[in-house]
DNA sequence: CCTGTCTGCCC
DNA sequence: ATTCTGC
DNA sequence: GCAGAATGGGCAGACAGG
């Protein structure tokens, strides 16, 4: 085993020898035979051996439990090289798409899969219809033709039954591109069958009348009951068709409520309602104490259900008017708009109003609320109002699906208007493509829906187009587990690597003064000054212009002669003007966000541009990345500390990518973005594939990056699909000096459902009344876990970064009196890797080691500053 | 006016 | 942000 | 591979309440 020092180095950060480590990921790179590997492999597989012969390795090399890249966990190590070798012919998953080595095993896997679920599935549909119908009966009690009800209910299942096998086969192979038509056929079938019942799940309201909110909730309930996406889509689309047929003017609020939004993101409308206020409102509406509500929430894991359950306890003096979609939307908007003194009470009374009017058909009839164990609570209006407020409808239906359903609904509706038959699958697909494309260029239903109603869906592209003033959806990237995966995915294609800067995504829009009249839409959203119109939008289309007045003021300095308008895709990064270097993300976040005056900006920012989406009156999103980048470099000029081009290199040589990844990290970046340069997939079209780019970060690579072994001290009750198990856990590092456990982070991702169950079982016996006196943890009430445990379980956890935390205590004493001011260390993006059953809690990562890791990270950042300029314009 | 809590939004 | 899961 | 739903740290801003 290598000695202590080298290990720690490797662990602690982004140090030179980590290159070696990365090398391992390519397999057979020469360092696979590094000694530490074998040792640890041994250590894991056979504890005894380690105890006797390997006592040293464990205690000396891993006194603190810190993982180094060398001291990698055995499985990763031991199988490392073989894994890589195997990759070409084994089932290494996903990365095979473009290679033709794989199809055979892949198919086989699928075939095997499809054969087993089929028999299981068959019985289930028979069971489900009777389960569903009672819920329906409740809501539809006014005028329900029961026969129709169950019929429409059954159809989806019937469809499954009749040709279950056929369909299953289709579904299973859905992923294969070449089977897409079959999927469409299936979808058609589902929808057609649903439709064939002749009735919508909710009976028609009077044409022109406002859409009843109950109608939407009925659809929601149907959607919630299935996980089949085609069925979800069909329900959604059918309901939208009904709205189109009866009350098209309510389509906009209907869609908005479906996607859990009150308005387009860039409009900046916030509800200002969170869990606390919702609980207060539910308590007041139902006459139950806050404590009871909280207990319920813990048990039920869904405030919507809590509201539904306690609904109807209060006798209503008179029957309120039934809620309408429009009414709910307006009510919520009202809640969003109140502000200032006493606004919280007003918000609560707004919620109370909605909740008291909810479920007027069923409430107040002496029923004690609904049975929430049935059908996930059924179509309760209260439930969905509350879920809207929480910002999570949890239907298995969200923006993307609604968009597609909307396209289908419109095409069908348009066809029906002209007495044409149901549109062909091809036409459906065409409509979807059109709507997706339009939406990604102009993500605003306020704009799209009226235009669509007026001009028809196929004319949308002429009416709703990308233009400065309205943010478009940004391209996103997929994480990549190794550089070989990158090579596999982009095999045979030219691609480029860019530094991934650790800042805030910024889409910068600009129109020069002389051209303002050409962009009428822009005047509404862009900030106007003597230098023209401009705005900055965030990754989620929020308007950040108020946060970056300094950037907008200087933007004319970046452009060359003749630039009239543009939309740039960039990253803003905090900038150290003295040392001329990039500062960490945490620094950037301390910037003021509102009413920022240029004079008193404390955190300066440098903009790193990496794409050009609109230029001089023309969208350039369909051009290849190579062309866009060339245009970008031709027409803009870097300004030190203000505006730079993202560092990049075009290479497909593994070693060079590896080197570049190392360099990016040394330059305080997060890693690399990898993008195709020329193919049709190199266009900037999120509608086609929103995650068309790849990102490579050190901590994605198995066995590379910082990982720690931490002790589980507490847990939080899970919600939604994690109800009845713990949803998150409180972790700590160990301080041998005073024998304390100092909290370092919560963790809630990385667990499979099985592991969550297992942990729940393992931890429940360890529950204790109160935290041990030797637990160092925040005393803020909101920071307390729901349950505390004996210190026993040790988990390996991976992290991207270490941060100084106002909440966690790990190594806090080490930072007393420093800049940190007594703050502890915490983890950025913590995720569970695996259980370390082989470790006792006092063998967990020590707080000293944590402090060391943090310092090392800082040191690397500083070192980068020194080197800057030398390899600044290094050619790759 | 100060402090703690809640919310929304960055990652 | 990261990760898991059903389709 | 997509889409959705679980979950993380941590900041500024808005309010409530003393």
Automatic annotation (TrEMBL):
Belongs to the ATP-dependent DNA ligase family. NCBIfam families: dnl1. It holds the Pfam family DNA_ligase_A_C. Residues 31-42 have a biased composition (Polar residues). The keyword Cell cycle applies. Residues 598-735 form the ATP-dependent DNA ligase family profile domain. This is DNA ligase. Residues 1-182 are annotated as: Disordered. It catalyses: ATP + (deoxyribonucleotide)n-3'-hydroxyl + 5'-phospho-(deoxyribonucleotide)m = (deoxyribonucleotide)n+m + AMP + diphosphate. CDD domains: Adenylation_DNA_ligase_I_Euk (cd07900), OBF_DNA_ligase_I (cd07969). Its EC number is 6.5.1.1. GO terms for cellular component: mitochondrion; nucleus. Residues 91-100, 164-177 have a biased composition (Acidic residues). Transmembrane segments: none annotated. GO terms for molecular function: ATP binding; DNA binding; DNA ligase (ATP) activity. Residues 113-125 have a biased composition (Low complexity). The lineage of its organism: Eukaryota, Fungi, Dikarya, Ascomycota, Pezizomycotina. One of its GO terms (biological process) is DNA repair. InterPro entries: ATP-dep_DNA_ligase, DNA_ligase_ATP-dep, DNA_ligase_ATP-dep_C, DNA_ligase_ATP-dep_cent, DNA_ligase_ATP-dep_CS, DNA_ligase_ATP-dep_N, DNA_ligase_N_sf, NA-bd_OB-fold. The keyword DNA damage applies. Keywords: ATP-binding, Cell cycle, Cell division, DNA damage, DNA recombination, DNA repair, DNA replication, Ligase, Nucleotide-binding.
């Amino acid at each position: 085993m290598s000695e202590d020092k080298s290990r720690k180095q490797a662990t602690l950060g982004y140090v030179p020898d980590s290159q070696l480590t990365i090398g391992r990921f390519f397999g057979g790179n020469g360092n696979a035979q590094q000694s530490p590997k074998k040792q640890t492999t041994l250590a894991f597989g056979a504890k005894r051996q380690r105890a006797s012969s390997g006592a040293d390795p464990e205690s000396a090399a891993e006194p603190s439990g810190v993982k180094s890249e060398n001291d990698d966990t055995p499985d990763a190590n031991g199988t490392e090289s073989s894994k890589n070798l195997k990759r070409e012919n084994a089932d290494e998953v996903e990365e095979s798409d473009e290679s033709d080595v794989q199809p055979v095993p892949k198919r086989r896997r699928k075939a095997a899969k499809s054969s087993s679920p089929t028999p299981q599935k068959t019985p289930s549909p028979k069971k489900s219809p009777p389960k569903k119908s009672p819920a329906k009966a409740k809501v539809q009690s006014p005028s329900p033709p029961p026969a129709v009800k169950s019929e429409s209910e059954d159809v989806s299942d019937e469809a499954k039954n009749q040709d279950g096998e056929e369909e299953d086969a289709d579904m299973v192979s859905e992923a294969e591109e070449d089977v897409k038509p079959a999927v469409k056929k299936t979808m058609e079938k589902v929808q057609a069958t649903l439709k064939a019942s002749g009735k919508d799940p909710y009976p028609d309201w009077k044409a022109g009348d406002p859409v009843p909110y109950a109608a939407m909730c009925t659809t929601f309930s149907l959607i919630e009951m299935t996980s089949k996406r085609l069925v979800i889509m069909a329900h959604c689309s059918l309901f939208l068709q009904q709205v189109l047929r009866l009350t098209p003017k309510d389509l906009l609020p209907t869609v908005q409520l479906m996607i859990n939004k009150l308005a387009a993101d860039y409009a900046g409308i916030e509800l200002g309602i969170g869990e606390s206020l919702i609980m207060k409102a539910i308590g007041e509406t139902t006459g139950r104490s806050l404590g009871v509500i909280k207990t319920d929430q813990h048990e039920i894991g869904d405030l919507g259900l809590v509201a539904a359950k306690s609904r109807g306890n209060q006798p209503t003096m008179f029957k309120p008017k039934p809620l309408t979609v429009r009414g709910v939307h307006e009510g919520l908007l009202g809640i969003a708009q109140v502000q200032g003194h006493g606004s919280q009470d007003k918000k609560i009374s707004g919620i109370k109003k909605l909740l008291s009017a909810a479920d007027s058909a069923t409430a107040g009839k002496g029923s004690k609320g609904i049975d929430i164990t049935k059908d996930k609570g059924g179509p309760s209006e209260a439930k969905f109002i509350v879920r809207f407020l929480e910002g999570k409808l949890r239907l298995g239906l969200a923006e993307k699906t609604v968009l597609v359903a909307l396209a289908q609904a419109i095409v069908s509706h348009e066809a029906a208007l002209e007495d044409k038959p149901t549109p062909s699958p091809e036409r459906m697909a065409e409509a979807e493509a059109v709507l997706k494309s339009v939406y990604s260029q102009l993500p605003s239903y306020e704009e799209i829906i009226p235009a669509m109603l007026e001009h028809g869906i196929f004319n949308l592209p002429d009416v709703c187009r990308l233009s400065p003033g309205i943010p478009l959806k940004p391209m996103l990237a997929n994480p990549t587990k190794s550089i070989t995966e990158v090579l596999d995915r982009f095999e045979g294609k030219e691609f480029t690597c860019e530094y991934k800067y650790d800042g805030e995504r910024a889409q910068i829009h600009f129109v020069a003064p002389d051209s303002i009249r050409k962009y009428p839409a822009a005047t509404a959203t862009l900030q106007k000054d003597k230098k023209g119109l401009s705005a900055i939008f965030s990754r989620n289309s929020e308007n950040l212009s108020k946060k970056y007045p300094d950037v907008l003021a200087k933007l004319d300095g970046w452009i060359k002669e003749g630039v009239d308008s543009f939309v740039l895709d960039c990253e803003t990064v905090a900038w150290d003007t003295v040392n001329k270097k990039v500062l960490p993300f945490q620094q950037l976040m301390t910037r003021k966000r509102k009413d920022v005056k240029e004079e008193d900006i404390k955190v300066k920012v440098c903009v790193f541009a990496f794409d050009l989406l609109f230029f001089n009156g023309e969208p350039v999103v369909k051009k290849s990345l190579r062309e866009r980048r060339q245009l970008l470099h031709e027409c803009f000029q870097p300004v030190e500390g203000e505006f730079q081009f993202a560092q990049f290199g075009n290479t497909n040589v593994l070693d060079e990518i590896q080197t570049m990844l190392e360099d990016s990290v040394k330059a305080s970046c997060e890693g690399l973005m990898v993008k195709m340069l020329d193919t049709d997939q190199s266009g900037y079209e999120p509608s086609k594939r929103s995650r068309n780019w790849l990102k490579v970060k050190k901590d994605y690579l198995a066995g590379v990056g910082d990982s720690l072994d931490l002790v589980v001290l507490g847990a939080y009750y899970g919600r939604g699909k994690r109800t009845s198990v713990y949803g998150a856990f409180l972790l700590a590092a160990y301080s041998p000096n005073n024998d304390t456990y100092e909290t370092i982070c919560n963790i809630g991702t990385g667990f499979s459902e099985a592991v969550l169950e297992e942990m729940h079982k393992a931890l429940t016996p360890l529950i204790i009344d109160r935290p041990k006196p030797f637990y160092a943890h925040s005393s803020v009430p909101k920071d307390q876990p729901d349950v505390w445990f004996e210190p026993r379980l040790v988990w390996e956890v991976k992290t991207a970064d270490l941060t100084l935390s106002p909440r966690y205590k790990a190594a806090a004493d080490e930072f007393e009196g420093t800049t940190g001011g007594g703050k502890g260390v915490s983890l950025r993006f913590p995720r569970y890797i695996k259980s370390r059953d082989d470790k006792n809690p006092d063998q967990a990562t020590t707080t000293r080691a944590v402090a060391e890791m943090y310092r090392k990270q800082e040191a690397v950042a500083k070192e980068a500053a020194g080197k800057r300029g030398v390899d600044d314009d290094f050619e790759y």
